[in-house]
Design goal:
- This protein folds into 3 domains: 6-35, no CATH class; 48-130, Alpha-Beta Plaits, CATH 3.30.70; 139-172, no CATH class.
- A 3-stranded antiparallel beta sheet has the order 1-2-3. Strands 4-6-5 form a 3-stranded antiparallel beta sheet, with helices on one face.
- The chain has helices at 31-35, 62-74, 113-130, 146-156, and strands spanning 6-11, 15-20, 25-29, 48-56, 86-92, 97-105.
- The longest helix is centred in the C-terminal third of the chain and has 18 residues, at 113-130.
- By secondary structure, the chain is an alpha+beta fold.
- Helix content is 27%, strand content 24%.
Length: 172
Amino acid sequence: MKRGQDQVTQINTRYTILEGLDGIESVLPNELFVSNPVQNYSLTHRIVRLSTQLTILYQDDVETVLSIMEQAALTVQRVSQQTAPQALLIKIGADGLDLELGFWITDPENGRLNVLSDVNRAIWKAFKEHGVEVAHPKRDIRIMDERSFRQSTARENPDGPDANNSRTIRGT
């Protein structure tokens, strides 16, 4: 059973009750904790790393954008000020520059998605203020008339377009 961010609400000699962020309670036999691995986000420290990914246009100044992302994260109250957010260029992708912003929180029991949403909204606002655009996939689709289609498939398949009882549509 893989749950997520559950909080222990009760421990008995035979079972433990976990409550999820959705309010659902799970009763687990204690033998599961002995025979299976347990991840504990607050055993020795409470700091947890979260991250968000996005893609920017090739023409954007990557160093400036990375700095904007880090500064935007620092405006969110729950983001740790002691361990600075770090923005990285992960990959030069097919549709733009893939970036990741990693940041730390010290109160995971208050939820992750809400702070992730706050950071994403802060980044979005900062991007709007600085004219940074988020990239999106761009694809070209060529629509051909029937005669052009038959000529194109005849060149690709010398046996004719109906040789394998299939049609090929090419994009650019």
